[in-house]
Design brief:
The protein is of the alpha/beta class. It folds into 2 domains: 1-101, 3-Layer(aba) Sandwich (Rossmann fold); 107-196, Formyl transferase, N-terminal domain (Rossmann fold). The chain has 6 helices and 8 strands, in the order E-H-E-H-E-H-E-H-E-H-E-E-H-E. The chain has helices spanning 13-21, 41-48, 65-76, 95-101, 121-127, 163-186, and strands at 2-8, 28-35, 53-55, 83-86, 105-109, 132-139, 149-156, 193-195. The protein has an 8-stranded mixed sheet with strand order 3-2-1-4-5-6-7-8, covered by helices on one side. Helix 1 packs parallel to helix 6 (163-186) and helix 5 (121-127) crosses helix 6 (163-186). The protein starts with a strand and ends with a strand. 38% of the residues are buried. The protein binds glycinamide ribonucleotide. Residues 8, 10-14, 42, 87-88, 108-110, 135, 171, 174 line the site of glycinamide ribonucleotide.
Length: 196
């Protein structure tokens, strides 16, 4: 059984879908949900599903990313994770944390990478006049929103879309894509899947 730690910063809707998917004959199980935001809605949702939770507040560490990441790593140890899924985790992780987990850490990003790394992806897609948008699940490497692409899902951009309406439609696809890619990843598959 592959033990999966899930990192969130907010509401954790992707985390819920991942946890819900890991039942029955699924080869993975959520071992902990961790947040850098002690009041993240995702922590309560995880606890309600019976998953252990952990908060490591980044704020007391200020600009000292290394100490924050050391605290993350130390806090994870008792849960013995085999891999990490970033699911709306909004802190940039440096090479010091990422490198030991490389090949064992996934992220979901709300754009069709390599387009629109970073923030405000939906606004940027609309400003560019793109006809389609979407989301990507990729392996995490030290470079931001980079790393081998394992899955992508596309949506058509509507003429009256706003960043919020587009984000909501893409999020619906994220909820399908991330569980699919996670299962395939645990099963050892590394080719890219596309939805729909
Ligand atoms: C999702 O749209 C995810 O793709 C995005 O944050 C949202 C989290 O929603 N992640 C990033 O922007 C990472 N850079 P959720 O908390 O409801 O899963």
């Amino acid at each position: 059984m592959t033990r999966v730690a899930i990192f969130v910063s907010g509401g954790g809707s992707n985390m819920v879908k991942l946890v819900e998917s890991m039942t029955g004959d699924h080869p993975g199980r959520a071992c902990v949900v961790l947040s850098n935001q002690p009041d993240a809605g995702g922590l309560k949702k995880a606890a309600d599903m019976g998953v252990p939770t952990l908060a490591v507040d980044h704020r007391p560490f200020g600009k000292d990313r290394q100490s924050f990441e050391d605290a993350l790593q130390t806090a994870l140890v008792p849960f013995e994770p085999d891999m990490i899924c970033l699911a709306g985790f909004m802190r940039v992780l440096t090479a010091g944390f990422v490198s030991p987990w490389q090949g064992k850490m996934l992220n979901i990003h709300p754009s069709l990478l390599p387009k629109y790394k970073g923030l405000h992806t939906h606004a940027r897609a609309l400003e560019a006049g793109d006809g389609e948008a979407g989301c990507t699940v990729h392996e995490v490497t030290p470079a931001l929103d980079d790393g081998p692409i394992l899955g992508q899902a596309r949506v058509t951009v509507a003429p009256d879309d706003t960043p919020d309406t587009l984000a909501a439609r893409v999020l619906g696809m994220e909820h399908q894509l991330y569980p699919l890619v996670l299962r395939r990843f645990i099963e050892g598959k590394r080719d890219t899947v596309f939805l729909p």
